[in-house]
């Protein structure tokens, strides 16, 4: 127990360091990684453009950072780094850097892998395989890719689904941003000029109408809200000083936000969306606080034609400070993503901020502060950008509807079992066959078919992402894994680690089912003394700490050590792997024939990782009696994982929530205490009959 407490403190410190602001580790790493972006050499440039020679490159910072490629003083394309443009982070939580070249026709001329830290070597997939996969993007038409035409994109490599999926997404997003915001692709139509960039100060942007302002003084607001119960103070100070701007044109957005934030915000937009900046200062807040509960910014109202809509929290990004030097100091700065189907930034629209106060009779008095906005003609162009394809995780969720539905059914059934466990365990036959059936589904369907085996690698990847810049998209690429982790995270608070280890772990299910067969075949079972078992538990916690600590030094070495998990061999690759890995997995299963869940009990680093946050468990639904451990030790003897100590306490760090002890607790024909009570209650009846 002391070891577990020490580990909990250690992980708390790691998490605190990961999210510490300002000057956090995330900031430091991002800064160091950005410095590592280097100029492509001549060989790389030639490779990216199909072997062409005598190509020249020149660095460009705006509107997209990268290198303009020319031949005989004629530009033929653009090269950008995926890390520099979209901050591509892999499944390992570390940056992936890919050079992506786009030609003037809107095609990917070529792509080259520069670096990665993905856990692929342990799967028998080499870096050379990944490089060949990246090379297959040469010639991809971005218009066809955005339209989702079948066969247009290379197939994801089996066994490295998430890693190659992230790589594919990074290449496409980088190429689409380059095509959208750089003058290298031929386009037709009309819309916003997303190409041109000119350094302009705040004063010039206001003068040209790119930024529109309105100011309402306290006296004006006091008059408009005169019937309010709490009066607005009087004076000439600002009640609301408001600024509004469409920031899609680089001349507006890159000047206001700086190139890094501008690129980040543009990359986060869905296809067709536009970005609206709203900045304010004064007594009144344009955001308020109600949106934190409702997820709707009810104080901001955007009107275009007969369409009126309010931004929501999912399409909001907070900006702490503008990058442009001569801007006023604003109290609040917001960027709202506006949907294409409801908003055309090239057409006039109105932004209004609402202010309301309670009246003495319990009603409301409201004031509307409008700003009419029209994007100046100089920011309109006869060019429109290539539409961005939906993020990879969206298509992944769409393509795995069956697996998602199956997982949700399983989790619903498991939730019902655990919430209604008293009714479940009072029927021993139902518990026995129900548990065996559930574990069979976990093994066959969840493990071998749906690919739902969790791993300590994912825990390390999550912690690494906190350090290197967390991105939801990386984890959303595998919907089954994402849903399982979401349920497990909630389950840790309700039931502890056993909600996964005892019911949803495919390899754990394989161990338990093979042990059931072994017992039917009368294979002798070894009872490990509690004092020995306590010391063996330390192995998995030590292994987890070593893997986690090593990951901050070398992700690749940590991934190699994570091969202590047989999950890839037994589940992901279904024993179709090199013989040393298969031999290791089979050896663990053989040991489990004599000691049930041998691997889970003593070696599993994932179980250790889950046990540490499970210390925060809010409920204790495993029932015990005061006599347990003192007058009766039957549950201790029957517990197949040794999670009950000699004095009857259940160790939540080791319990797999099999509910065997609860079956005994409610069974009057098994529980020693219930039998004793039944005997005592029968004695008076016998004595009365004898008299």
For this entry, give a set of tags.
691 residues, 30 helices, 5-stranded antiparallel β-sheet, alpha+beta, single chain, disordered N terminus
Describe the structure.
- With 691 residues, this protein is α+β, with helices and mostly antiparallel strands.
- It is 45% helix and 14% strand.
- It has a five-stranded antiparallel sheet, with helices on both faces.
- Strand 10 (300-304) and strand 11 form a beta hairpin.
- The protein is flat and about 95 Å long.
Report the portion of residues in β strands.
5-15%
Number of helices, where a helix is a run of at least 4 consecutive DSSP H or I residues: 30
Strand count: 16
Proportion in helices: 40-55%
User: Class by helix and strand content?
Assistant: alpha+beta
Side-by-side strand order of the widest sheet: 1-2-3-4-5
Average pLDDT confidence is 82
Shape: flat
Low-confidence stretches: 1-35, 185-190, 382-386
Radius of gyration: 31 Å
Which sheet architecture does the biggest sheet show?
Answer: 5 strands, antiparallel
> How far apart are the termini?
57 Å
Summarize the structure.
This protein is an alpha+beta fold and 691 residues long.
Please outline the helices and strands:
Layout: H1 2-19, H2 25-35, H3 42-48, E1 56-60, E2 66-71, E3 74-81, H4 82-86, E4 97-103, E5 108-115, H5 127-135, H6 142-147, H7 161-181, E6 191-192, H8 202-207, E7 212-217, H9 218-224, E8 238-246, H10 250-257, H11 259-268, E9 274-281, H12 291-294, E10 300-304, E11 307-309, E12 316-318, E13 332-338, E14 349-358, E15 364-373, E16 380-381, H13 392-399, H14 401-419, H15 421-425, H16 428-449, H17 456-468, H18 472-476, H19 479-494, H20 498-501, H21 506-520, H22 530-551, H23 555-561, H24 567-572, H25 579-594, H26 598-602, H27 605-611, H28 634-638, H29 660-666, H30 672-690
Helix pairs in contact: 1-17, 10-11, 14-19, 16-21, 21-25, 22-23, 22-27
